[in-house]
Amino acid sequence: MKELLMLFVSFAKIGAFTFGGGYAMLPMLQKELVERRKWTSEDEIMDYFAIGQCTPGVIAVNTATLIGYKRKGVLGGIFATLGVIFPSMVIITVIAACLRNFAEYEAVKHAFGGIRVCVCVLIVNAVIKLGKKSLPNLLSVGIFSVVLLLALWGKIQTAFLVLLAGAFGVILHFLSKKRKNKVSEPETEKKEELAE
Amino acid sequence: MNTVIQLCLEFFLTGLFAIGGGMATLPFLYDIGARTGWYTNEDVLQMLAVSESTPGPIGVNMSTYVGFTVMFASYGIWGAIAGGILTTLSLVLPSLIIVLIVARVLDKFKNAAIVQSVFTAIRPASLALIVAAGLGIMASTLLCIPDGFTLSAVSDVQSFTGLFNFKGIILAAVLFFGMRFFKKLHPIVFIVISAVVGIIFSM
User: Residue A118: which of A23, A16, A19 has the closest Cα?
Assistant: First the structure.
């Protein structure tokens, strides 16, 4: 029970300070879950993020469900999910009830201007940290570049891009298997390295 | 009571079919407004402005806001609060179920070689999507290009110096080195400091 509550509190904290959509959540996840609580690893966070993007619904919520499930099963998933949506529900309810033109206040606009800059820097830091781990070889750099170009200028749904990369992984898997059965040893080693 | 059930159902379906994050819920919200007459397109824009300038996932903020607004009209403040909660829970319920199933299946096949290869390919793709989103946020924050990097957006800018948001770039540089110097501090601390700096220097 104590750990379930901790899941709720941790994710409520993340929900309360995630500004500007699911991607801005990444640096918070890294600090709170990997560095402070040591509940998960950086590699796993990337996997969860990828799954969160190609499953229906809000990315931040899906990522929370996955991490909660990993810690404490189905109940953990539910507590983490409720945690991440709790601050939003409270804050939005208060604003909708009393401060309808909240977004038009000068102070709010300026504060948000500052926060956006901070979010940029946090994302850059997260990418630097994760890049070292997610791009171990040339093949992964290749996948990264292609997906980046498609995401910036391809006008393709992000979920579809993740699925495309997954399909590519399946093809690679079978290619390396075939090679393993046929070709000489050094070639096999090379392919294995890629599949690792 | 009918409104409550319809509200829950609409958002359940939105949560089920909106793939790719909070922004993917927007077309669904427009569609719901148009079909039911609960709110107008301008209402959606106002709710989006609030959702973007408050913490929390945008899709979640939007659904709480819509639930509150719709129920407020006929059931008063307590009905509205309940409406916001019910709508948000309806939105996350389908993904909760689906993600739990996916997590279960993955747990079982975690060590299968094929799952490993799929994730080897997905990890760099996931990083690329984060970088793309980050570049988009940077374009509209540190540079004055609101709609991402297109040639027409760059040529629309009047002067070369008009392209840069200097206050933002200076703050970003200070934060970048500050985070390296004070490694132990939680990102929350930097977010709060940035908000205060933003208000003081009218960013």
Answer: A19
